[in-house]
Design goal:
The chain has 272 residues and is of the alpha/beta class. It is 34% helix and 17% strand. The chain has 8 helices and 9 strands. It binds zinc ion (ZN) (2 copies).
Amino acid sequence: MTKLYDMHMHTRFSGDSEADPYEMIAAAKSKKLSGLIFTDHMDLDYWVEPHLFDLDLETYLPTLSAIASECSDDSFHIGVGMELGLQEHLVSKHQELLSNYDFDFIIGSIHQVNKQDPYYDSFYDKRDAAGAFREYLEATYDNLNAFHDIDTLGHLDYIVRYAKRFFGEDTALLSSDFPELLEAIYRFLIAHDISLEVNTGAYRCGLTEPNPSIELLQFYYDCGGRAITIGADAHKPEHVGLAFEQLPELLRSVGFTTYRHYLGRTPSELPL
Ligand SMILES: [Zn+2]
Ligand SMILES: [Zn+2]
């Protein structure tokens, strides 16, 4: 059986979760996962609600590291990481954070585009779908260029989840719509040995594909991308390892034969 680690989840240390870390661990164990990595939000300068996603590392790291040691054993490993919300003006703050604290794994995510969060309908007031996607992808590329001390790029194309709400169910972000931009992002990741995250959080929003979509994952593979990480982006115990039972087959159908697990920010390849 494929050993699967859920490497993207939130606890009460995130501004949008009340989950008890012990319950997240219990959920992962009950789903027969091989381990997990906690990745609570650190989104400095979250413009919509200031400080909602500031992560208190002085409490977070010792608390979760202690729980990780207590609950890890030979058959289940727990890591402590962080989901870092990238914005270009935060580069020096992020560099400082990562040089002062130790993590197992860093997800770099774009939650804000030009100081607005595509999660909110107001983001789409002055943008059509194509314009919103282009701006999102451009922000992704610009942020990567400015700062790339991350292990994986989080949920590329998750903006589609929210754009659908505004522009309709058929709304899609296809590689053929933005081939140059996507290829530039993918080539940047490959050149810097950064993984691309496959995030199954979309399944809890009723979608039937991960982020990025299978089509975008195929384009990554065709560009030469092989490094992927997996995570369900759970904010509640019931979503830990969501849709993981279908993930290995889905990823193998694209061509991937391995995924990456990180420990002390060092990757190892695991068979799918
Ligand atoms: Zn995120
Ligand atoms: Zn997340």
